[in-house]
Amino acid sequence: MAKMWAGRFSKETDPGVNDFNSSIAFDARMYRVDIRGSMAHAAMLGKTGIISEADAETITEGLKGILHDLDSGALAFDPNAEDIHMFVEAELTSRIGDPGKRLHTARSRNDQVAVDLRLYLREEIDEIIGLLKTLGQTVVEVAREHTSAVMPGYTHLQRAQPVTFAHHLAAYGWMFARDIGRLEDVKKRMNYSPLGCGALAGTTYPIDRQMTAEALGFDGPTENSLDGVSDRDYCIELASALSILMMHLSRLSEEVVLWCSWEFKFIELDDAFATGSSIMTQKKNPDVAELVRGKTGRVYGDLMALLSMMKSLPLAYNKDMQEDKEAVFDAVDTVKLCLSTFAPMLKTATVLEGNMRAAAAKGFINATDCADYLTKKGVPFRDAYKVTGQLVGYCVEKGTTLEELPLSVYKQFSDVFEEDVYAAIDLNACAMNRRSYGGPAEEGVKGQLEKLAAIFGEGETE
Length: 462
What we know:
This protein is mainly alpha-helical.
């Protein structure tokens, strides 16, 4: 394929440089938005009289034909093309002749690729939000089934205080809700059209940037032509939001890995979402969760690649910026793959409430409530804390629990203890009496789940 810019050069490009320079292998995925942007540009050229209305219509019909043939598979991408933009323009010219050569009037590949990337990522953000909402709906659905399932809450991976499984899952629900907000913010900031910025300094043609911005669903044109073609903040911001999202998924994945182990055995994954061992017949491995945890580092790497690529670039466009696509595309693809696999894994898991309750009983996670019991009877908190610590030490030495101690032993440590201490340290009561806003009490958690369901669009079809 002849280069569109070959007129300046006296010899052919070295074949190795052609391969090194080409981006068609990864930017071909943008063909739909590239054609859409070209249609808007052609319509504007015709409307403003820069080219004839007849040529604009011919160009549009030609582009529609190319789109149809690419969608159907009747037309294949030329691997020798430099990029998707040159491929489409060359194919258009071969089909309609001279009018095709007029499409690029008042436009550069710099503003063309910038508008393509914004259009493409805008659509991808919508798809990721849809997948996040599906995962969020799954979190709400599973949590609603276990609002009274007491389990240990942890700090330092040590049993700390009683919560419920629903309360624990709801914490991740709020993380995913914030992820949706971040993605919506990215989309809002990227939704300005660079089309018409030209190579860097706009154009002398009487173009109408507002017209093309509106046609492509943007909130308006970018304000500065230099910034319009050289800005990749939206790629970096998207990769950052996706990295935070993956961090949340990775944290939940780590918990799934722990919960599936025999040491915890809080949940069991469905056979369809686990794998076995080639030699150890007893194994049931949480590979999905482990892969999500591993792929988190991959998305972090994409973010660092984008930051490193942009950190020293002078205005305006530099060829370094071709590296933006593979990094941001990889981050998007990885997140979509993880989200689409994680939701059904969580939905089909079996929650072992009895094991959670047993672990809660053995962890002295009602010690704080024992201290609070004394404090409410007038014992200074620090004294109550010391007495309770001595009781826990006694239980550890005797191999028993606070619930199993007779009242006579309690009174050895403080005369304030009475029979009502057993109600105060009951694990169910310890969890359900934590009615402070945001706590694990059942009614409060149900309220959280209602709010999350509204955020995730419960019942909506994505």
